[in-house]
Write a structure and sequence with these properties.
With 123 residues, this protein is an all-beta fold. The chain has strands at residues 3-7, 10-13, 18-25, 33-39, 45-51, 58-60, 68-73, 78-83, 92-99, 112-113, 117-122. The strands form two sheets. Strands 2, 4, 5, 6, 9, 10 and 11 form a seven-stranded mixed sheet that branches.
């Protein structure tokens, strides 16, 4: 059974940093493109960032370029999202997602989803 479990969310101030983690199990992790997707209250899910199987390829939404960094550790079956210079508009539930296709680096759909972790940026 595939499980993606996010952690690291919380309440922070504008300009602060957070590092989200996603622990994966039940899948051959290095064979999957991994992504972070977020959903703000009253909004649709929004692609944030994705990383290819080896970590050599990444893709970011324009809204987070230069502030967020996605990375992965295939030895630990984990993917991370370092978020710097946080803004109120970054407030959302952040989901980890996985897909076998390389094209998933550009956005959904994804095979598997976590349950999300809340990030709240207070001004």
């Amino acid at each position: 059974q595939v499980q993606l479990v996010e952690s690291g969310g919380g309440l922070v101030q504008v300009g602060d940093s957070l590092r989200l983690s996603c622990a994966a199990s039940g899948l051959s992790f290095s064979g999957f493109t991994m992504a972070w997707i977020r959903q703000a209250p009253g909004s649709e899910r929004e692609f944030v960032a994705a990383i290819g199987r080896s970590g050599g390829s990444t893709n970011y939404a324009d809204s987070v370029k230069g502030r967020f960094t996605i990375s992965r550790d295939n030895a630990k079956n984990a993917v991370y999202l370092q978020m710097n210079s946080l803004k109120p508009e970054d407030t959302a539930v952040y989901y980890c997602a996985a897909d076998r296709k390389f094209a998933a680096i550009y956005g959904p759909p994804y095979d598997y989803w976590g349950r999300g972790t809340q990030v709240t940026v207070s001004s």
